[in-house]
Each structure stands twice: as C-alpha cells, then as structure tokens.
Design a protein that fits this description.
Blueprint lengths: L6 H7 L5 H5 L3 H21 L3 H22 L2 H6 L13 H38 L2 H54 L2
Length: 189
C-alpha cells in the first residue's frame, strides 16, 4: 500500500526525475518518468542535439512538481490514487490490450531499430579507428559526428511528411464519404 512519506526526503528525491514518485511508493510512475528522462538524455547525447534537452527540461519540471503535488494531496485522494505507467496499457480488456499493443508496437520497433543502428554505428567507428591511419581517422571522425544528426533530421522530415499525407488522406476520404452520402440523398428525391 502506498503511503505518504517524509516531506524533506520527498523534496530531496524529487530532484531526480521519478525518484520522488518511487520514494512515495508509485513505482510504475517513477520508473516511467526516470526512463523517459534518461532515455531523452541518451538520445540527445548520441545524436548530439541540444534541442532534445529542452524536452528533458520539461520532463524534469513535470516530475519535480508532480512529486510535490502527490505529497500535498489530502490523505483520501492520495490513498485512492492508482500507480500507473505514463503510457497506459489496459490489460483487463482483451480488445483494448490488442489495440494498445498494436498502437505501440511500431513505436517500440522504431526505438529498437534506432538503438540497433546506434550500436552498429559505434562498433563500425571503433573498427575503422583501428584499421585506418591517424591522418585519415581525423577526417572520418569529423564526418562521423554529423551523420547521426543528418539521419535524425531526415527522420524528422520523413515523419512530418507522413503525418501531412495521413491527414490529407483522411480529409480526402471524408470528402468522398460526404459526396456518396449526397448522391444517395439526391437519388431518392
């Protein structure tokens, strides 16, 4: 059972994203926030992109104030609060669990692919370091720093194009549906 803890220790632990929630017994919530924070930090370091750190700042502030809001809740609301992950998966319903798994399957697959590419990229660079002479390595090293950013930029553009096409396709299908409904109404007159 989750119970309120020391205000001072909650304050200390809340400086680490997710730790304040975990200290108060909300393990799923805390692990989600901690994983999100450190995952974004790792991606930011790997892709050498500072703008991802802006997202991490928001996650940090959310986690900090969320822990304090949990601590400040009245006892009845605090004890009634359920511990859940940031991404909720409804495992009680067979239908919803299938929908949720399908929904996040592609996201999880994409994360695994990016992680695999990162591991391969670092391994290949380590191998090249031992094979090529030092003067060639300096060129390869400079170029290799920009490749992850280039790939990330292309990925973001591709996702944007995909989202625009998807919305455009939705609008076209809605227009077609309205046209067919209008034709049906005129044929009955």
């Amino acid at each position: 059972m989750t119970k309120k803890k020391s205000g001072f220790l909650t304050f200390i632990f809340s400086w680490i994203p997710g730790a304040g929630q975990m200290y108060m017994g909300f393990m799923r919530m805390g692990v989600s926030l901690m994983g999100l924070f450190w995952g974004i930090l790792a991606l930011s370091i790997f892709f050498n992109t500072g703008f991802l750190m802006l997202i991490d700042v928001v996650v940090w502030f959310y986690s900090f104030f969320h822990a304090h809001n949990l601590r400040a809740m009245d006892d009845e609301d605090f004890y009634a609060l359920e511990d859940h992950y940031l991404i909720r998966i409804d495992t009680d319903s067979e239908f919803w669990s299938k929908v949720t798994i399908e929904k996040y399957r592609r996201l999880f697959a994409g994360i695994l692919i990016v992680f695999g590419i990162a591991v391969l990229w670092n391994s290949i660079l380590d191998l090249v370091y031992w094979i090529v002479p030092d003067y060639v390595w300096s060129y390869v090293n400079h170029i290799s720093r920009f490749v992850p950013q280039l790939v990330l930029g292309i990925g973001i553009i591709a996702i944007g194009i995909f989202l625009i096409r998807g919305k455009k396709q939705e609008l076209l299908e809605e227009d077609r549906g309205e046209d067919h409904a209008g034709e049906t109404d005129h044929s009955h007159s």
